[in-house]
Each structure stands twice: as structure tokens, then as C-alpha cells.
């Protein structure tokens, strides 16, 4: 048995150790690290610890143990000497005065219990530096937890002061969506936690997936306010890590059969568990993007969106390495996208289409009738609730409208509207072969810019024979444009210029060919023929008298998301051409996660437009039978065609202006990329600027949609070499100009 002196000696030793290893408060630990410009990952490597552990030390969730505690204390002590607190807080036990106009908290107000954490990106940038979604201002009544989520809401709050974000409104207690639009759910050390935007982490008490859904709807305070007055609030999104999948009985990866079908079998134990709890799944079942819901009661929705990255929910073509990021970083990335675009509803293509509907909901509440009741009515400017048939010329092959055609019939230009992006190239001239470089320039957000201000049909088409062409009327027109001669065109109102038509792509077809007779075109294509100075006489048309600028809000939101994220990456909209090119060099490496957001925004544009003409996806479909997408009011191939038409025409207009002013012609055009032969290697050598001003109506360097950036530069010898290698004199060099890598012969796909 120890003597009294031995016990006192042991206690003295402990007291001495505590005194030596005393640590500042968690918020101060984080402040010191940020003041020194250090990341959590750097500190973790120095202390031989996990980055997550450092994050826990900075939020007070956990404390370091010896010997790491001593080393951590020494680090913080050294940082405190170099970076003293410029604005020390009130003394312990003294409450700070509330800000002017802000009510102090009530003494008997219930505290927000649970643990406080502040995870951070491995890039060293604090998550709270990113804008949080603006919360809905309507309080939600308290709903008691259901199932096995009993107990007080385990909401944790952020440690330390948040950085000011001009675009975000600090959420107030009790607001429905104060914890942001989404959470990444992870399981660690036997505890399930939810990483939210702004660095917030919630403890999750749910023991089953059904209970997790209940907790999300009743306690988590997740979601996003509606984007339009008549619309609906966005449902909360839960992203399940592999550890969370294991915790809730889900596989971490789909089998080959499940991957092909895109869903778990209906007999899976988790699916049966949801059914027993009276939850439903949408027709696509429990797949990478599952929606779990109960039928709405009045205006109260009960729906949760799930995303499972390990099931390839986050396509690497659009989301890069997002699916492999730690939970905090993934929450930061998806939260930024959600706040600037919308909460993801599926792939970027699905989200792009859903954004159109969210900004223009199909219905709205009517004015009160004689009895004071309101009814649902079509929302002006929307596509309505019911799908409309396209015109036969707009229908893709296999559409029910074409069921009467012979089985192997191939429709020509006079039967089929074919508005697609450019894929054109030509051999270099002798003069171009003597030049040093091939310079590629790429139009930023070209298809988004093509949608801006474009009138599109809102309803069904009307057939007209021998119509007078109206450039303001959306539609599809059967007209012969073979007489349009690019060797002499009008630029502006009265100025005619002569060009070398053999060096230009034709504006009316994707391959740049000159039309050989009547063909179907969208309104922007026919209007451009008029603009070039030539008469047009349509033979037939399917026009849409009910029309509007349906995509303007969609364009504006995606443009703002793109510009805000590029500005965060150091590429602002007000830079000079020289500074813009400098800022674009290596911009992705400044913050790889934000660079992924940029890529996802671009994919949202192209994918959303592609969904307007979605083709059958398996489902046992046969030509002539309807497929699932046709039941959507947003299945509108005419709108897609109009946007692509306008985008291609916008590009051709710039090419013509450039040729008329400089005498330079493109050698290749692919979608939104144009390649020129030049003696210099930079777009500054290629594009004409006078006193810092670009050619009016021509190419202009900048980050805004519709302006251009440097796509890549290769030598002329490289271009001739790859064409010789593949025995293809018209190989489209625009496809490979970025890095010069040619993997296979150009097949036009």
C-alpha cells in the first residue's frame, strides 16, 4: 500500500505535467494555426497524428495525449509569441455586450448541446470561408423525433468567430435550414456524425437508415430555400461515406448486376426496412441517387435525397476526385455547389434540368375565387405540367411520331432537324505551314451564353405552310440556304466584305458543309442567313407562338456560380487580357476542390441541355415505343436545338469578324474551341487589340461566358506530324490542342 508521501508525490507529478502541457482554448488553437498559415495536415504530419485529430483538438471534441500533447503545447506556445491575439475577448466569466440592435440571449434559453467540431480542408483553407446557403426565414415548428432517434437534438455549433461572407446571411436559431443544404454522413469510432457546410459537425443518434431519414427531416435542420416564389424548398441531401454505408447495412460497392440495373434489389434488407417504416422510393429505386419519401400532406414535404459516392454517384468526368475526399472536404465542395447552383438532385445533367424547373415551377396558386379559395394554375413562363409533342422533324430516330417510317429508313436534312455543335477541320495552306504555332482559343460557357436572352417555345408547335420568316419566332423551318455565299457577306447593317469561303466553315451544318437543298433549321440559323445579307423563303415551319426567355434565369444563376468560383480561384472578371492569361495559368492548383466546382458547373450547363432530348436508357425499349423521358414537360428537343444553333452561330459570327479584320482563318473548330495558325504562341499575338480594346463583335479574352481563354498551343510541325501519322489530312486538331496528346484516329465522336 502506498504511503501518504508517495501519493502526494504522484499528485505533484501530475500537476507539474498539466502545468507544462497547458493548452489554450480550442478556438485559440485554430486562430494560431491560421495566423501562421499552416494547415491541419501540416501540423498532423509534424506531430505524427491524423489530420482529423488536429481538427478535433481545435474544436474541443478531443484533447491530445502524451507525448503529442507536450509537442502540441510547445508549438502553440511558439505561435502565440509570434502571433499574439490582436483582439482578445472578454475575461473569463464576463459576457460580451451584444451588438447594436441584437437582443442578448435569454438566460433560460436551452443551450445547444452536443460536441463542437471544426474540421477543415486539407488544402489549408477553412471551410467557413465559403458562402453558406441563405437560410429560409420561416421558422419550422418543433417536431418530436420518431423511431430510434429519441432524445434532444444533438446539434453542435461552430467554434470561434466565423469569417464574414458578404453573400451569406448568418442563420438564426430555429430556422428550418440553419445547418445548410446537405451533410456528409460518416461513422468513426462507433459514432455517426454529419459534416455540414461551414465546418459544422452534428452527432447523429440514428441506428438505422429509416431512423436517419426521420432524424434528417425532424432534427437536422437541413435543406435549402426555394429559388422561385411558386416553387418548393429543396429537400435535404445526405451523402453517405463507405463507413456510413457499412453502419447502416448498405454495401460499400454495387455488384455488377446492381451497377447495370442502377439499384439495389427490392429484397435487400435495407429496402425492406424502409418499406416497413412506410417510406417509399421513386421509380429508379435505391441507387446511387436515391430519393426516400412519404406522400406530401398539404404543403409539408417529407423527402430526403441520398448520394452514395462509392456507388459512382459522383461521376469522375464531372466531379473529379470528389468521391474520394474526406467528409469535411466533400461537404465543403458540395455545399459550395449547392449554395451557388442548387442542392444536387442526381448527376450534373439531372441537376441542370431540375434547376430549370426550380426557377420556373410548373404551377402557382391562383387568385382567390368567389368562395375565397385558391387553385393550382399554370405558372406563366413555365413549360407547364404536361408534356407536349415535338414536331416530326424535331423527333429523334425511334420516336413514336416516326413509327410509320420504313424500318431502315434514314432521314435526310429535309426530314430531320440536325442542329449540333461544330466538328470541322481543313488542311493548312502553304502560308499557314510556314507559321510557327497552332493556337487554340476556347469560348467560356459557350452553351450557357447561347441560352442567354434566347426566346424558346413554351408550348406545342403549330404547323405553317409557306410562312414568312420571323427571326423573333421560335420554331423549326424548312428552307433552302444553298445560295448563301460566304465569299461575300454583310457585316453590320450595310457593310459588305469579301472572304475566302474555302477557308471558312459553313455556318449551317456541324461539319461546315454547304447545304445542297432544303433542310430543317432552328430560328437562329435561318436568322443568321438573313444577317449575312441573303433572302430566306421557308417552305414549311413548325412555330411556337407561345414563347418566352425561359432559360434566362437558368443562365444567370449558372453564370454567377461560375464567375464567383473563378474569382475565388483568382480569376476575376475585371482583369486585363494579360493579367487574365496569367491568372488562368495553374488556377486549378490554387484550390483543387473549387476547381472541381467549376468543372461541375460547366457539366451542369451541357448536361442540362442534353437532358432536353434524353434518349432511351435500356428499359427494354424498342423503336417506335415511348420511353420514360417523353413523359416530362422538360423533354424539349426544340429548345436544345435552338440553344445549340445559337451557340454555333455566335461562334461563326466571331470567326467571320476576325477573318474580315485580320485576314486569318481557322484551321479547326470543335464545339467551342477554334484553332488558328500563328507566328506567336499566345492568344495576345493572335487577337487584335487596339489601345486595350478588342475587335468589336470578335473574340475577346476574359472569364465571362461568351469570352475566350487560351485552350493550348502546339507547333505547326506537331499538327502536320499527327495528321501524317494517322493519314488524315483533316484530322480535327482542336480535339488535341490542349496538351498535344493524340490517342487514336479522329472518328468524329
Number of helices: 22
Would you count the extended β strands for me? 24
Q: CA-to-CA gap between the ends? A: 84 Å
Percent in helix: 25-40%
What's the overall average pLDDT, rounded? 85
Helix/sheet category? alpha+beta
- Spatial sequence of strands, sheet with the most strands: 3-2-1-4-7-6-5
Strand content: 5-15%
Q: What does the overall shape look like?
A: globular
- Radius of gyration, rounded? 30 Å
Unreliable residue stretches: 88-174, 745-749
Largest sheet: 7 strands, mixed
Please outline the helices and strands:
Elements: H1 4-20, H2 26-35, H3 40-47, H4 51-59, H5 68-82, E1 182-188, E2 191-196, E3 201-204, H6 209-218, E4 237-240, H7 242-247, H8 256-261, H9 269-276, E5 280-281, E6 289-297, E7 300-307, H10 316-319, H11 327-340, H12 348-359, E8 363-365, E9 376-378, E10 423-425, H13 430-433, E11 437-443, H14 446-451, E12 456-457, E13 462-465, E14 475-480, E15 488-491, E16 495-498, E17 518-522, H15 523-531, E18 540-543, E19 547-548, H16 552-568, H17 577-584, H18 587-590, H19 592-611, H20 637-662, E20 668-670, E21 673-678, H21 683-686, E22 689-690, E23 693-694, E24 708-715, H22 716-725
Parallel strand pairs: 1-4, 4-7
Antiparallel strand pairs: 1-2, 2-3, 5-6, 6-7, 8-9, 10-20, 11-21, 11-24, 12-19, 13-18, 14-17, 14-18, 15-16, 20-21, 22-23
Helix pairs in contact: 3-4, 11-19, 12-19, 15-20, 16-19
Amino acid at each position: 500500500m502506498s504511503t501518504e508521501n508517495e501519493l502526494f508525490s504522484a499528485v505533484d507529478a501530475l500537476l507539474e505535467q498539466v502545468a507544462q502541457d497547458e493548452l489554450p482554448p480550442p478556438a485559440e488553437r485554430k486562430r494560431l494555426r491560421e495566423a501562421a498559415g499552416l494547415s491541419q495536415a501540416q501540423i498532423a504530419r509534424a506531430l505524427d497524428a491524423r489530420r482529423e485529430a488536429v481538427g478535433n483538438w481545435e474544436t474541443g471534441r478531443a484533447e491530445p495525449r502524451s507525448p503529442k500533447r507536450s509537442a502540441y503545447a510547445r508549438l502553440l506556445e511558439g505561435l502565440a509569441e509570434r502571433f499574439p491575439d490582436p483582439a482578445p475577448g472578454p475575461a473569463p466569466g464576463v459576457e460580451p455586450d451584444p451588438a447594436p440592435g441584437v437582443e442578448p440571449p435569454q438566460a433560460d434559453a436551452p443551450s445547444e448541446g452536443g460536441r463542437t467540431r471544426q474540421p477543415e480542408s486539407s488544402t489549408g483553407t477553412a471551410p467557413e470561408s465559403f458562402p453558406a446557403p441563405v437560410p429560409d426565414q420561416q421558422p419550422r415548428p418543433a417536431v418530436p423525433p420518431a423511431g430510434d432517434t429519441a432524445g434532444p437534438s444533438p446539434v453542435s455549433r461552430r467554434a470561434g468567430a466565423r469569417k464574414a461572407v458578404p453573400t451569406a446571411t448568418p442563420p438564426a436559431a430555429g430556422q428550418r435550414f440553419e445547418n445548410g443544404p446537405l451533410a456528409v454522413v460518416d461513422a468513426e469510432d462507433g459514432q455517426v456524425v454529419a459534416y455540414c457546410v461551414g465546418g459544422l459537425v452534428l452527432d447523429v443518434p440514428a441506428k438505422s437508415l429509416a431512423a436517419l431519414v426521420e432524424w434528417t427531416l425532424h432534427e437536422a435542420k437541413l435543406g435549402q430555400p426555394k429559388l422561385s416564389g411558386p416553387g418548393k424548398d429543396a429537400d435535404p441531401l445526405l451523402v453517405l461515406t463507405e463507413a456510413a454505408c457499412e453502419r447502416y447495412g448498405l454495401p460499400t460497392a454495387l455488384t455488377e448486376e446492381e451497377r447495370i440495373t442502377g439499384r439495389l434489389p427490392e429484397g435487400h434488407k435495407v429496402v425492406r426496412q424502409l418499406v416497413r417504416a412506410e417510406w417509399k422510393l421513386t421509380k429508379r429505386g435505391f441507387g446511387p441517387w436515391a430519393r426516400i419519401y412519404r406522400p406530401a400532406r398539404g404543403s409539408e414535404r417529407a423527402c430526403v435525397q441520398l448520394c452514395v459516392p462509392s456507388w459512382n454517384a459522383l461521376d469522375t468526368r464531372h466531379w473529379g476526385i470528389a468521391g474520394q475526399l474526406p467528409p469535411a472536404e466533400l461537404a465543403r465542395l458540395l455545399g459550395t455547389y449547392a449554395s451557388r447552383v442548387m442542392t444536387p438532385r442526381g448527376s450534373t445533367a439531372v441537376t441542370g434540368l431540375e434547376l430549370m424547373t426550380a426557377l420556373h415551377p410548373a404551377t402557382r396558386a391562383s387568385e382567390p375565387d368567389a368562395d375565397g379559395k385558391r387553385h393550382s394554375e399554370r405558372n406563366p413562363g413555365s413549360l407547364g405540367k404536361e408534356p407536349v409533342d415535338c414536331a416530326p422533324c424535331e423527333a429523334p430516330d425511334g420516336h413514336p411520331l416516326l413509327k410509320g417510317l420504313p424500318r431502315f429508313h434514314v432521314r435526310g436534312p429535309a426530314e430531320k432537324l440536325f442542329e449540333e455543335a461544330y466538328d470541322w477541320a481543313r488542311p493548312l495552306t502553304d502560308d499557314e505551314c510556314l507559321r510557327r504555332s497552332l493556337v487554340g482559343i476556347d469560348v467560356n460557357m459557350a452553351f450557357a451564353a447561347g441560352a442567354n436572352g434566347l426566346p424558346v417555345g413554351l408550348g406545342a408547335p403549330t404547323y405553317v405552310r409557306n410562312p414568312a420568316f420571323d427571326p423573333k419566332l421560335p420554331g423549326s423551318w424548312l428552307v433552302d440556304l444553298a445560295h448563301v455565299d460566304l465569299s461575300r457577306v454583310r457585316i453590320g447593317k450595310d457593310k459588305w466584305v469579301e472572304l475566302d469561303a474555302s477557308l471558312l466553315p459553313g455556318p449551317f451544318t456541324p461539319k461546315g458543309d454547304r447545304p445542297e437543298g432544303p433542310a430543317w433549321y432552328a430560328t437562329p440559323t435561318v436568322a443568321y442567313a438573313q444577317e449575312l445579307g441573303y433572302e430566306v423563303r421557308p417552305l414549311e415551319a413548325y412555330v411556337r407562338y407561345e414563347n418566352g426567355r425561359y432559360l434566362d434565369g437558368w443562365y444567370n444563376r449558372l453564370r454567377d456560380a461560375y464567375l464567383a468560383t473563378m474569382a475565388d480561384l483568382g480569376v476575376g472578371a475585371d482583369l486585363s487580357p494579360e493579367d487574365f492569361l496569367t491568372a488562368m495559368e495553374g488556377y486549378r492548383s490554387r484550390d483543387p476542390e473549387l476547381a472541381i466546382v467549376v468543372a461541375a458547373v460547366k457539366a451542369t450547363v451541357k448536361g442540362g441541355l442534353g437532358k432536353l432530348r434524353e434518349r432511351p436508357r435500356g428499359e427494354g425499349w424498342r423503336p417506335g415505343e415511348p420511353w420514360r423521358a417523353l413523359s416530362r414537360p422538360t423533354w424539349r428537343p426544340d429548345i436544345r436545338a435552338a440553344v445549340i444553333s445559337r451557340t454555333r452561330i455566335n461562334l461563326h459570327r466571331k470567326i467571320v469578324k476576325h477573318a474580315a479584320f485580320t485576314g486569318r482563318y481557322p484551321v479547326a473548330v470543335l464545339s467551342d474551341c477554334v484553332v488558328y495558325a500563328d507566328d506567336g504562341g499566345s492568344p495576345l499575338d493572335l487577337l487584335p487589340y487596339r489601345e486595350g480594346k478588342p475587335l468589336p463583335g470578335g473574340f475577346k479574352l476574359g472569364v465571362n461566358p461568351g469570352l475566350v481563354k487560351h485552350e493550348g498551343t502546339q507547333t505547326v510541325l506537331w499538327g502536320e506530324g499527327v495528321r501524317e501519322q494517322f493519314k488524315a489530312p483533316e484530322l480535327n486538331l482542336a480535339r488535341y490542342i490542349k496538351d498535344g496528346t493524340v490517342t487514336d484516329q479522329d472518328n468524329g465522336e
